[in-house]
Amino acid sequence: ALRTPRQRGTMLRALATLMREHTEELALLDAIDGGFPLPAMRDDVNWAAEVLELMADAAFDIGGRTIPLSANLHYTLQQPYGVVARIVPFNHPVLFAGSKIAAPLMAGNAVVLKAPDQTPLSAIRLAQLAREVLPEGLFGVVTGHGATAGA
């Protein structure tokens, strides 16, 4: 929340670029980890990057609105929640990881992502990549079975 929407959009676009640069690695992690077909996992990486880019573009339009009324001033104010949790299913892990973090990060929230216990590798690698472009503490991943990880 300390960054402007435009700054957050720039960071999301940088993360999308990193994902595209590491498409083969992320796709291979999901293919090995979950037994998914490699071509489908490449598509998943690109789709997740597209969602990040979509949210990056939306960040340039976020803001409050003034509502004209006759007697009083009325306005909306966009405020982040703070920390948002996201749970990723085992199927298409990199697609869901990338797409589930996009909107909360764009809105100024920190995100804790619960990686699937069966296929956690791509979510962990995504968090490592995110460290290159996101401020420290803005995005983290927890692993483990749902009951022990708090899901």
TrEMBL record:
Transmembrane segments: none annotated. InterPro entries: Ald_DH/histidinol_DH, Ald_DH_N, Aldehyde_DH_dom. Coiled coil: none annotated. Residues 4-150 form the Aldehyde dehydrogenase domain. Keywords: Oxidoreductase. GO terms for molecular function: oxidoreductase activity. Pfam families: Aldedh. PANTHER family: ALDEHYDE DEHYDROGENASE-RELATED. This is Aldehyde dehydrogenase family protein.
